[in-house]
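Sample entry (165 residues):
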Amino acid sequence: MHSRRGREYADGDSGRGVRPLGCPVRRIVVVGTLVMAFAMSGAVAVAHTLNGTDTAHLHLVRQHETVVFEEGSATGALPGHMRAQLEVGSVFSGTCTIYTSGGTITGHGRATPHGTGRYQSFSGTLTIAGGSGRYAHAHGRTGLYGTFDRRTFALVIQTTGSFSY
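Predicted structure, serialized as tokens:
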């Protein structure tokens, strides 16, 4: 590149009858070409957002001390089958995976239990940490609510909010 009276020209151009590189028309053509190249290469991904509520009715599969392993059906915005591992204590914490027709979604959450009877409600947050299939890049944070039956270890989990994938 060389400069002539403050304007830049491509190497080899004398500057006569040639538009400067900084000209708006040339910038638009260059930017448009780059955008098309990215779009055609598949490098541009469109993020989707899912907003809704899902409810899972889980039953005990096995227990190891204060950790329960549960599974069951999920209905709502993402119907499918859910598996969860929950540590029961003064704070509930655990992981869960929902298996849908479009792939899996995995998350981890923490919730505060309320009450001391047989049925204990809880509320907290669920962090969506990934998945597979169409949800391979899932991420976000949703509300986490539910009830835990201390006698049968049955668990009802409800998530509400949105996440991107």
